[in-house]
Amino acid sequence: MHLTFTAEGRTWPIRLSGQATRTRAALLASLPLRLQLHTPKIAGSHIYWHAPFVEDVEGATHVLDAQAGAFIYWPVRQFLEITFAPLQAENAQITVLGQLDAPVEGIAELAQTLKLEQGHRIIEGTLALAEGEAVEPTAAPVSVLCEEMVSQRKALWSAMPDDIARLKTSRAIMHPAGPIFAAEAEARVLHELLWWVRSRLGQQDEAMLRQTMAITLDKAATRLRDFCHMDETPALLFALRDAASTAVPLPALVNEAILVSGRIGAWIDLLIPWNDVNKAFCAAYD
C-alpha cells in the first residue's frame, strides 16, 4: 500500500510495510492528514510532524538503525518522520512503518527549507492514500470522555490557538524569547511525563498515577497561564486535571492528555526560528 506525502508543491510516494498493525491502523484511520512540518533540533537528518494518535512501539527498531528514507513513528515523541540520512546520537526505540519510494534528495532539500524558514512561516503538507488505494472503513471507537473536551482537543488540532500565536508579538523585556521558550519547555516536559504515566498503567497503583497526572497537568497549566501569559490554552489542561479525579477510565484520559499536550508543544515549536537561534548561540559562545 502506498501513501502520498505532499509539501511545497512536490509529492513523494511512501510504501507501507512491516507488521506494525496497530500503528498502521491508527495512521490509516487518521487519513487524510493536514500536516505542519517541523525541523529537528537534536536527531538531525529527518523531517517530522505530530501524529494525531497514541500507540506504543511495535517491532522495536533502534532509531539509529533506521535506514535513509525510512517512514517511522516515534511513540514517546509522538512524531511521524521521514529520514534522509543517518541520525545523530539518540537512544530510542521506534516503529518502522514503511519507506520513501523515491530518492531521498528531495526530502533533504525540503529539510533544508524547513531548517532555514521554521519560525518565519509554517510549512504545511498533506499525507493521504495514494490514488487507487483504499482501506476498509472502520467504526469510530466510542469515546468515554466528555464531549466538550474532545471537541476542544479537535479545535486545538485544527488551528493554532490565538494565545499561542500572540506569544511572538510581545516586545516587553526579554520578550518574546522568554515566554516562548518557557512555554515550549513546559508543554514538552508535560508531554514526556504523561508518556511516563502511560507506561506505568496496570503496573502501579491507579490512584497514585491519577494524582501524579493531576499534579503534572496543574503545574504546566499554571505556568502557561501565570508565567507565559497564555489565557486560553491552559483551560483544557485544567479540565484534564479535574477529570483525573473522576471515574473516567485512566487509559483514555492519559491518551487524551498526551494528544492535547503534544499539540500545544507542537504549535509553540513552530513559532521558534531554531536555525537563527542556534546560529546566535554559536556566535555568542564563539
Which oligomeric state applies? Answer: single chain
Model regions low in confidence, pLDDT < 50 over at least 5 residues: none
Radius of gyration: 19 Å
Largest sheet: 9 strands, antiparallel
Order of helices and strands: EEHEEEEEEHEHHHHHHH
- Structural shape: globular
Report the strand count.
9
Determine the fraction of residues in helical runs and give it as a percent range: 40-55%
End-to-end distance, in Å? Answer: 50 Å
Q: Estimate what percentage of residues fall within beta strands.
A: 15-25%
What average pLDDT do the residues reach? 94
Instruction: State the domain count.
Output: 2
Can you walk through the features of this model?
The protein is an alpha+beta fold and 286 residues long. The chain has two domains: 2-129, Cyclophilin, CATH 2.40.100.20; 147-275, no CATH class. It is 44% helix and 17% strand. It is built from nine helices and nine strands. Strands 1, 2, 3, 4, 5, 6, 7, 8 and 9 form a nine-stranded antiparallel beta sheet that branches. Helix 6 (206-226) runs antiparallel to helix 7.
